[in-house]
């Protein structure tokens, strides 16, 4: 693992620099950095990816981490995957929706621990309804309490996104 200071944000990088990049947005990085670091190392080792973990406080930090992950990748920057937990998961979904406007491309986004009452920390707004996909980004939503995850996946599928509901029992990337 290497820890670096990207412009305006601290990041930890796990895995070989020549591997595909996964950007991991986990809110526990602020309170349990060692646990999130161990999770990132496991993901890097088991999945064969380079994991970039920013220490973020707000939506601006999340956007800075995207710029860092893209600029530091040896692979095409539009092959980035993003996994977000809680409100950062909502931000990952929002990022998928707005990627063309932001001038980026994404391979996959994953929302873990999402819920209807969470706001996107980048915009400060609830997650917008998905519009028809003009990109080939895969969207995963991990099952959560209630029916929010299923309802969300159904809405994304109706908008022609490649969206999948991931059973929580099969998702192992927990701190």
UniProtKB/TrEMBL annotation:
It comes from the Bacteria. SUPFAM superfamilies: alpha/beta-Hydrolases. InterPro entries: AB_hydrolase_fold. This is Alpha/beta hydrolase. The lineage of its organism: Bacteria, Bacillati, Actinomycetota, Actinomycetes, Propionibacteriales.
